[in-house]
Request: fold
Amino acid sequence: MLRLPRFGVVTPQTVEDVVAAINQPGARIIAGGTDLLPNLKHRLEQPALLVSLSQVEALRQVGRDDRAGVVRIGAGVTLTEISENHLVRQLYPSLARAAGIVASPSIRNMATIGGNINLDTRCRYVNQSEFWRSAIGGCLKSEGTLCHVVKGGRNCVAAMSSDCVPVLTTLDATVVLVGPAGERRVAIAEYYNTDGVRHINKEPGEFMTEVQIPVPKGPRRSAYAKWTVRKNIDFPLVSVAMRFDLDADSPDARMTDVRVCVGVLNAKPRLIRRTESLAGKRLSDRATVEALCQLVYKQSKPLENVPYEAPYRRKMIPVYTRRAIEKMLAS
Amino acid sequence: MAESFLLSFQLNGEPVEVAAPPHYTLLEVLRYKLDLIGSKQGCDKGDCGACTVQIDRRPVLSCITLGVHVQGREVVTVEGLTRPGMHPLHDCFDKWVAAQCGFCTPGILMAAEAYLSAVGRKVTRGEVAEALASNLCRCTGYTKIVDAIVEASELMAAEDEGKDDHRRAGNPSKTS
Reply:
């Protein structure tokens, strides 16, 4: 049996009341709780007070803002709602896909996009029971001072395992944070750093209210690929999100802009560099797809931080990239 | 120490009020405070689905849902899967011997009921497998469970054609 530690809970109804509540000592946000509660049961955190977003209706909206040219998704929208939302399916099919294959259906009914974006990093030496961890003396992210993944390492390399974050990175999304000093916006690519213990660039007392995604300006294809041990329930072993802006709405069109982002390497999703070399080429050309897969392979170096061996996972990244492109072109 | 929380919500069609410590999960509120022990505690961390209940008609895992989160919402547990006579899922699980040890059965019934009610038609084996992706069974190999749910979907769809009002007895507010 895994009991939760004792804590208090408050259920504010407005964003202002949430800000006031999280500025109390030991306070922490809880949205769906599907990732946080197992972590608390494993004693990875011991907050004195959980500030629940369950009663904040303002965070549960999805809407198009044509003046700003973005779609706004509230932090409290569930992953099921995102995967079923017509606006998301129409404008951002890769996001609908990613949100629709997180964990399992029952988890997606509670889990929120805010929780998925602010998901804690994971590692095979961290996400274990307190008893299991005590056998190895903990690690940098739990009770210890050693890293078991990188021997002698001083930087925690726990992995960002969110399915939505690589996709949102390719879509140039922006997260909106609210805190005592007011509102601020951060490009999602700047929202993470490589320190697995504190991987989110968020100030104490701030919380995320929404994510904004620019409306596509022209024809586009996008895809998300994820490899897992089992088909459902598991976190990804590797994940790749892709976005191809095209000069015409046809599978044979030329690419004008390419974004590829790989997840589950370390705490920061990796936006693949030098994809501009693919501009002007066609996705229907096998050599182009192969060149893209090589770029992804060279720049993605998995570590032994999640299940399966790192060299195996590295080889599978271009495989999943190629399959996702083939599936995308066929549909 | 934190004080108890007074929780009021709809449970199996009836309004309930219950005081529970704020760190209780929904599963703990149901089992320890309301004596509804149909929902099972399995892995207790969101992997197995034995604790599945419905919140606002969607299946969720009550072991990783904070009790406080059901304030004002509508919860249905396996004890609420009743009507005059047997529910088609009960009949079909019985007919196909779809429960062996039975520990996963309450969770599977709630996930299946939510799915069949939402689609309202005969479903395929593949669709059942997707709908039950959150629920593990270590006895049956799933074959008999899927058989039972496919047949229940036929019976429920046939009932649907006969009358609009086929939903859970004791929950008239949601049936019209």
